[in-house]
Amino acid sequence: MQPSMYREEITVGILALQGAFVEHQTMLQKLSLKQRINIVQVRTPEDLAKCDALIIPGGESTTIALLARLAGLLGLLRDFVKAKPVWGTCAGAILLAQAVEGTKKGGQELLGGMSVTVMRNGFGSQVESFEAPLEVDGLRDSDRPFHGVFIRAPVVLSLNPSPNDPPIEVVSRLSASLLPHNQTAIPLDVDDTDPCDPRTIVALRQRHHLLTTFHPELTKDDRFHEYFIRQCVLPSLS
Amino acid sequence: MSTPTTSGGATPPVPQGAGNSTGTPVLAPTRSSTGKDGTSSNLGTFGVKSGLAQMLKGGVIMDVVNAEQARIAEEAGACAVMALERVPADIRANGGVARMSDPKMIKEIVDAVTIPVMAKVRIGHFVEAQIVQAIGIDYIDESEVLTPADEEHHINKHAFKVPFVCGARNLGEALRRISEGAAFIRTKGEAGTGNVVEAVRHQRSVQSEIRKASVMNEEELYAYAKDIQAPFHLLKETARVKRLPVVNFAAGGIATPADAALMMQLGCDGVFVGSGIFHSGDPAKRARAIVQAVTHYNNPKILAEISEDLGEAMVGLTINDNLKGGRLALRGW
Fold first, then answer.
1. Nearest by CB to A19, which of B11, B55, B110?
2. Compositional bias of type Low complexity: which residue ranges (chain B) (predicted)?
3. Among A9, A17, A18, which would you mutate to test the B interface (most chain B Cβ atoms within 10 Å of its Cβ)?
């Protein structure tokens, strides 16, 4: 980075309409970086205007989208996603997807921004929620697996970047053998041991955008938070 | 902008990775599944049980008695719905034994919405819990609103893959429920009255007892644990993190957006609304206003806007010894 581009501090917003936003805040506060990170809980257009980047937390995607619309944030968030780095975890990942299956009756509002299709509650109800070790690529100490916490998690059904879209980089996969077997909504004719099955993708980056279907903020491992700042936020500022 | 903007200062975060962290006991047995390549995952861990409650924070969970009400709740922004046969106000008015709902009705609600569905079972009735787990619901409320099935024992909630929420009036009761496996606590309040006074009392008790415990030394904590009949290790952890070790919602008597914001400012993580919505003049509008109030609980200007013109609130009852249906909060041991 050029010295003239160096920023002493960056402001990261966390969409605080509903869900586990405090957990993300705690993780960001513990990061030790050269830059100072200001954290803003985003509930109004004024809050969003301060932010260099945004995290959309886990929660209920239908609730978050409705509250965003009622707070006059929906259009502003769509513009923000087009211009600045955004990371969506679980419900946030659903909101960042280009298309979603398993939406509520009548469909639901999305922000879009990432060229993926996801399926809500892809593993089933809460009794199918699980924890599993994940292989990661590009994180600090990537030899060490990341502890993935999947709670009523979405499943990536396909990657559909058009030729002009930034390339998609897979950051983490779930072992193919742990994919749900009892989901009628997911085609079962796919070889479930195929390591390239898109359904095994649980974390991916498309330029300044990061999507995780699980919850790094529920662990004590800050490597995904550091990755977001290092690979998505800092490059967008230079 | 030099300090983090934290409007929710009253509520410290739930400890990270509850269930895995050192200090927080791993309470639940886990069912493991091992893949063909030897990779294994754990289903129904305490981490995913308390984790779902963490995802519900800042949200409103609404009582519904059929699929149509569940859809109204989902459209109004509920983060989950609670399926039950009659809302508490009707249980109060009609009397008789209140039980688990018809599984057919619960299944219709599960099919109608995409948000988590919870169901109530009677205190101590572990077979009702087995039945609603088999239906595939997302959370069980072992609730004092239904007629208790056991006047001494609560359900051993560790034995289930589905997580449980339980009511509590004070810190000792909350920690007893957590030690039995509850992954989520709510105030009891006085359900079906539209009167928030008991929920306020319960939340204030829990908060003041936590503040008291947080300045105690170890000897004092041993004595205090005995005094409030709480397991020592959970009391010690609560004193360390200065909040309940699981998510804590308000419930019982919440009828207006202002009631919901009051409970949030008193340190609750979210709100259950029972009779308050579908016993009001305009349920969809009131439900949406309460959802907004829980998000913007610290912004009186927004609270004023959303409280306007909501139609009739539910009729409130005075809580005294003559209360029809009795005082439900006294159930639970």
1. B55
2. 1-11
3. A18
Please indicate, yes or no, if residue A1 is contained in any of the structural domains: no
Range of the domain at A39: 9-237
For residue B48, which residues of chain A lie inside 8 Å, CB to CB?
A: 126, 129-131, 149-151
* Distance, CA of B59 to CA of B138 (rounded, Å): 16
Residue B303 at interface with chain A, using a CB cutoff of 8 Å: no
Tokens of A22: 């405090």
Residue A215 falls in the annotated catalytic set: yes
Q: Find the range with the poorest average confidence among B50-54, B94-98, B162-166, B224-228.
A: B94-98
Count of domains forming chain A: 1
Phi–psi pair at A27, nearest 5 degrees: -65, -45
Q: Distance between CA atoms of B137 and B119, rounded to whole angstroms?
A: 7
Q: Hey, is the C-beta of B24 within 8 angstroms of any chain A C-beta?
A: no
Evaluate whether residue A2 is within a structural domain.
Answer: no
- The ipTM of this complex is 0.93
Each residue's pLDDT tens digit, A197-216: 899 999 999 999 999 999 99
Among A57-61, B74-78, B85-89, B133-137, which stretch is predicted with the lowest mean pLDDT? B85-89
Output the six-digit token pair for B295.
Answer: 């998000």
CA angle A212/A218/B71 to nearest 5° reads 70
**pLDDT-derived band at A190, boundaries 50, 70, 90:** low
Place of tokens 């996603």: A81
User: Does residue A4 form part of some domain?
Assistant: no
Tell me the CATH number at A162: 3.40.50.880
Whether A166 maps to a domain, the answer reads yes
> Looking at beta carbons, which residues of chain A come within 8 Å of B114?
62, 102-104, 120-121
- Does A225 qualify as catalytic in the annotation? no
pLDDT category at A2 given cuts 50, 70, 90 is very low
Say yes or no to pLDDT of B9 above 80: no
